[in-house]
Structures are given as C-alpha cells and as structure tokens.
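dumping this here before i forget
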Amino acid sequence: MRSIIRLVAASALSLPIVIGAAGIASADVEFDQNNASASADGATLHDLASGADGEGNSYFYESYELAGPYGAGNYTLLTWTYQGGAGYFDQYAWSSPDGAWVGSTSATADDGHWVTEDADADVSDDLDE
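structure:
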C-alpha cells in the first residue's frame, strides 16, 4: 500500500516537471505585461508584449495610454520580423486644452523572397525562382 501511495505522489509531483520540460522544448516564447492605475489625478494603462518562434519570426509591442488633468493621449510601438521581412510602426495622439497632436511612422522591408503557401507546391520550386 505504501508503494502505491509513493508511486501516486511521485507521479503527481513529476507532472509539472514533465509539462515544464515540454514547454522548454518548444521554440515559441512569449512575454506579456499589463499595468493599469487610476487615481483622482487620472488613469494610465501600459501594455507590453514580445515573442519569437523557432522560424525566425519575432515581435515587440508596447502601448501606453494616459488621461489626466492636462489632457489625454496614447502611444503605440510595434516591431516585427516575419518570413524574412521586418517592420516598424509607431503612432501617438495627444489632446489638451492647448490643442491636439497626432503622428505616426512606419517602415517595412523584406528580403525579396516570399514562399507562397500552396498545398500542391514543393517549397524547392519557390527557392529555384
């Protein structure tokens, strides 16, 4: 009976290790963080995320929003790499009793080669082009 209890306990304790090892073996990684605050002076919201996979794709995202006695606004930043291409985007907007401002920047680049998704095609056909 004691052996069965030990076996069940050992199995229960080893399950998180097995699940964790499977997660480590995966090539996908992600990080997320969110913060919010509110007071009599205003409110803020901050989001942050990033990730990557085993195929060389990655992203970074950050967003900040603010409202207070001097105005309200937001800022967003996004960068990524995907299938040999890369991109960048940011934008901001602000309004106050003195006026309003908006702006953005964006840029993209690719390596000139995109593999088409065709179930009948051989990937080596695309690479020979």
